[in-house]
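Hey,
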Amino acid sequence: MARTWILVAHEAGARVFENYGPGKGLGLIEEVEHSEGREKARDLETDRPGRSFRKNSGDPRRAAMSRKEGPHERVVADFARELAHKLHQGRMQNQFQRLVLVAPPRFLGLLRSSLDGPTKQLVVGSLDKDLATTKEAELIKRLGEVIAI
């Protein structure tokens, strides 16, 4: 039987389970805390944006430089890449052959875009809900929508 890993994640942490098959339940493989995901952007920010001269305006005054991504978004994206790397390593060590992703919609998108091609091909289902702190019995019930557990 193909081994299935289930990543249940959100911005502040993740749990990786292995599905033992229909009626056999889940086994917790790893729990990853990410306390920075709970922080507010102002608590993560170390400095204000820099200042630059206005381009092609002939105006000697300086203008604030904008940020494309705030500090909170950067921390969350880094965490998604960290989780994708863990999944990559698990795939490379042949620890699973199928993968299910469970995360809130925005974080699920970050996870999917962070996965490498071969790992992405192992994704057999996903659930766009925040179940990261859900007890295992409820989690099994909710995962039934995606995979036989």
